[in-house]
Amino acid sequence: MDSIGSLGLQQGEGAPSCPQEGLPCPSNSSEMVQECLQQFKVTGAQLRQIQTSLLGSMEQALRGQVGPAPAVRMLPTYVGSTPHGTEKGDFVVLELGATGASLRVLWVTLTGIEGHKVEPRSQEFVIPQEVMLGPGQQLFDFAARCLSEFLDVLPVDNQGLQLGFSFSFPCHQTGLDKSTLISWTKGFKCSDVEGQDVVQLLRDAIQRQGAYSIDVVAVVNDTVGTMMGCEPGVGPCEVGLVVDTGTNACYMEEARHVAVLDEDRGRVCISIEWGSFSDEGALGPVQTIFDHTLDHESLNPGAQRFEKMIGGLYLGELVRLVLVHLAQRGVLFGGHTSPVLRSQGSILLEHVAEMEDPSAGAARVHAVLQDLGLNPKASDAEWVQCVCMAVCMRAAQLCAAALAAVLSRLQYSREQQALQIAVATGGRVFERHPRFLSVLRETVMLLAPNCDVSFIPSVDGGGRGVAMVTAVAARLAAHRRLLEETLAPFRLTREQLAEVQAQMREAMAKGLQGEASSLRMLPTYVRATPDGSERGDFLALDLGGTNFRVLLVRVTTGGVQISSQIYSIPECVAQGSGQQGILLNWTKGFNASDCEGQDVVCLLREAIRRRQAVELNVVAIVNDTVGTMMSCGYEDPHCEVGLIVGTGTNVCYMEELRNVASVDGDSGQMCINTEWGAFGDDGSLSMLSTRFDASVDQASINPGKQRFEKMISGMYLGEIVRHILLHLTSLGVLFRGQQTQRLQTRDIFKTKFLSEIESDSLALRQVRAILEDLGLPLTSDDALMVLEVCQAVSQRAAQLCGAGVAAVVEKIRENRGLEELTISVGVDGTLYKLHPHFSSLVAATVRELAPRCVVTFLQSEDGSGKGAALVTAVACRLAQRTRI
Ligand code: ADP
């Protein structure tokens, strides 16, 4: 037995019964009545098929694989976030299409304080039938007149009123205030509106009317209004479900799943437009002859087939068709109908609600039937009640199947097996038929057993939600302005970068000449890069803080092989030579190939002893920049620049000896260690320095020093981001304005977070996880903003670095008098290597600023050891050549 059978959905055998168990049924019920009611029963399997088919249609539409008349439309609404609860202000809301043949105007005041509500004022206007079916302009003029009439009696001034337009028909939205009607539904059929922007039509009408100056800020449909107006409960409400005249739902989808949007971040509210769901395979088996008749006689035959089984506009009509059918066959009303019963639309949703309500009793049913010009017998009332219940129950069950499809979709897109979600419900069917919600809830529980769904009735029929959308739009626009203002100093123009390049060139020249400059331009005594002819075994010592690494570097025709061993530094040694630090030292004594096979530790001890005793004869003191250049240089003879972007940043390059004032000699070259981290320490970068750079600098151990490095390297980027986040929080733009202790903690925001947050492969959900780990109280917009902050900071870092490299390669090109220079840069450092965009931004900046240099970037492997060995190898090669 199907599990849904317990709800009475299974087609039953044996004694006839009402759709609702326990209800008194006439014992003399004819086969014909049973047959009629039976048609409205839906099995669990049928509901599951509808759920599956609808889910398939939804996913197809999201992927954009649909024909001109798709089963469901999945329309993006340009509502990207659910409310904060802090929205405030006064808003006018105009509702059209939410509640049948009426138009509603509301004045909504949002207080920005949770729990503190100001009741909206509203007025409902009945739309005459001839306006609903007449020319479009007439409808919009009618709306503008209603607006003025409503505002006339309110104490408002005519200044910048902000209006949210709730327009509940299928529309193609291209902006929050741009929406083109696809087709009329729900009994409307005005000419010259389909294919038009309804916001513009409303604006034009308001202007024609001329009484008020009103800004139409946002257009949404009633499902979105319902969702957005929901009082935030345990969590945000991310599904809106409306069953009124028609039916529809919306939910928050990940933007990257929506093919028509050119957006891969954040979420967007999707209006499903499920009223048009039409899969014959799934719906066919549950459609009755009455559904076919109803469709046939409707304003839009063949369209909105699903809606016509659920929407309030049609429930009364279905009941009417069944009653006419039964009367004409002599089963009801003594075989008589009445002119009222025979006329289309005479049974309204209200009638069905009244007759269906078991607590109202037979007398109420009787009264309604008499109003319809009928003369019911006692048993008639009971049967009519059964008919009403059968029609409504089917509607609730079908609606549940559709909602279950949405829940399945959310489970999938959120990658959450057990989903906890709030669904905002709205519309007269919910309000007037209490049983509708209970059947809906029970059926959803069976169809989507892993979802914990709470249903929350909408506030003010969604009007508050429309005001909320309008307010959110206003808030987001204000926050975006503040974010842009904050990040603007980080967005460097081409001119600013060219200026950095020029200043760097000048500082390089001065430094080389021995004049005052923030660039020290230290000669390294490395006179050549590898040319590939180096051969031999070399020993390298890599001296770290706590470890000594000894590397045996074998340079052969087959390439460079390195074997290494790590020794901890004996305390006496560490204390004996405070100078050694992180330098990598090469001594002449270690370069000979005859050390092969000797005891490495022995050599090391001897070296240290010699160093302490007689000041070791140092051939080259190689810093990491030089090591990086040399190690890449062995593979690529064009490699004449070394770049480090790790904890700190620095560059070295091959300069013409004649330009180096502090070293004798006019021919040949020498590698210059620029120590560019200190660039700008003379104040030359002050134009680019932001308040955040100043904060980071002030809090550092060396205020005023290494200004260039502090804008670029791994030790500082996280800190810059943290200071920006603090500022944006103080402006109320981030984290709802709540300052947390965590974010006040220095170095809490690691530079590696920038890499993680900016990684293309990471969903925003993971960005949220990183920030939540930091204990930051995140909203969905916050993650996006933090991402933008990280991007601005790392982009500036990479561009400044690129401007520096451009200065260096241009200098080399000019030194050599070349039209075009082909050169490679060896690079090391975790920030450069692991950040997802840093390296490509550096390269792009260099291309832009040094167009006559063809620059290749090579990432070094084990730059320090291998590079140091090669420094020695090259020194040996040069020495041999001199001897010859
Ligand atoms: P060093 O420059 O000290 O020789 P590294 O090249 O490994 O060492 O750089 C270390 C720096 O790299 C640290 O300051 C750290 O902030 C940064 N870093 C570590 N991991 C990442 C990452 N995944 N993305 C960007 N930067 C990182």
Per DSSP, the total helix count is 31
Spatial shape: elongated
| Distinct compounds present | adenosine-5'-diphosphate
What do we call the CATH topology of the domain at 78-220 and 462-479?
Nucleotidyltransferase, domain 5
Strand order of the largest sheet: 1-11-10-9-12-13
Q: Low-confidence parts lasting 5 or more residues at pLDDT below 50?
A: 1-17, 19-27, 571-579, 581-602, 612-621
Tell how many strands the DSSP assignment holds: 24
User: By helix and strand content, what is the structural category?
Assistant: alpha+beta
Residues in helices, as a percent range? 40-55%
The description of the largest β-sheet is: 6 strands, mixed
The CATH C-level class name of the domain at 78-220 and 462-479: Alpha Beta
Mean of pLDDT: 84
In short:
Residues 33-230, 483-579 form the Hexokinase N-terminal domain. The protein has 884 residues and is α+β, with helices and mostly antiparallel strands.
What distinguishing features does this structure have?
fructokinase activity, Hexokinase, domain 1, six-stranded mixed sheet, alpha+beta, binds adenosine-5'-diphosphate, EC 2.7.1.1, D-glucose binding, Nucleotidyltransferase, domain 5, disordered N terminus, 884 residues
Tell me what the structure shows.
It is a single chain. This protein has 884 residues and is α+β, with helices and mostly antiparallel strands. Among the domains are: 29-70 and 277-394, Hexokinase, domain 1 (3-Layer(aba) Sandwich), CATH 3.40.367; 78-220 and 462-479, ATPase, nucleotide binding domain (Nucleotidyltransferase, domain 5), CATH 3.30.420. It is 44% helix and 18% strand. Helix 13 packs across helix 14. Its main location: mitochondrion. It is found in: Mitochondrion outer membrane. It is a peripheral membrane protein. This is hexokinase.
